[in-house]
Amino acid sequence: MNPSINADPAELAKFSDLAHRWWDADGEFRPLHQINPLRLAWINGLCPLNGKTALDVGCGGGILTDSLARSGATATGIDLSTKALRIAQLHAMDAQTSNVNYREISAEAMALEQPAGFDVVTCMEMLEHVPDPASVVQACATLVKPGGWVFFSTLNRNPKSFLLAVVGAEYVLNMLPRGTHEYAKMIRPSELAGFCRAASLNVTQARGLSFNPLTQRYWMNADTSVNYLLATQKPLSS
To answer: Which residues make up the binding site for S-adenosyl-L-methionine (predicted)?
Structure first.
């Protein structure tokens, strides 16, 4: 595992420029606010969060991290965007969320510092934005305790996903800023599952996330062809 910074400067700049909009539920990050209750319920259903230690990798402005803390976990969010982390910290102060903290550190560096340090690790909507996603998966596996859970979400790479998640979401419906996603960086479920197996994580569940633009409703299902989530667990012994 390479402890050097696994980040694309252009990606960091892109999200830093939007940092002040993280907690605007009707702004550029509206989709994250809309799907957050779904993914939180899914995580909490598989691994009840109350009393757990949780790490949110690539936390951005802290939308999921804050929810992990509100569900009873002692939550830490890490990211490499200074501006996004400042927004997350300000929100935590304003909301008086005491069981959450944020750090500017990479997943790989955190793994060297706190191996097997967390009951739950989440890495949502982040892998498609880094040069080496397998390295992040390995870091997440190192960070979680034996028997603990690691949750991932990302975008599939296929023509349907390109049409819906890039052309549709970014250029037709304007749900996301143009250039948010690059097709070549999207990750097929089989590829992500391979990264997980190489990191000694057992894939226990795969779920899809669908959206109806007419009703503006998201829901989880078995269709992993566009947006999908993987639940993985670290064996109690190797």
So the answer is: 39, 58, 79, 124
Amino acid type, 238? S
Binding residues for S-adenosyl-L-methionine: 39, 58, 79, 124
Can you give the C-alpha Rg of the chain in angstroms? Answer: 16
Q: Are strands 53-57 and 217-221 parallel, antiparallel or unpaired?
A: unpaired
Q: Which of 65, 171, 198, 167 is nearest to 121 (CA)?
A: 65
Residue ranges for the known binding site are 39, 58, 79, 124
Task: List, in order of start, the domains of the chain with CATH numbers.
Answer: 9-233 (3.40.50.150)
**DSSP labels for 174-230?**
--S-TTS--GGG---HHHHHHHHHHTT-EEEEEEEEEEETTTTEEEEES--SSEEEE
pLDDT digits (tens, 9 = 90+) for 49-69: 999 999 999 999 999 999 999
Nearest 5°: CA angle at 223, between 230 and 178?
A: 80
Q: What is the pTM of this model?
A: 0.89
Give the side-chain half-sphere CA count within 13 A for 164.
17
- 127/223 Cα distance (integer angstroms): 19
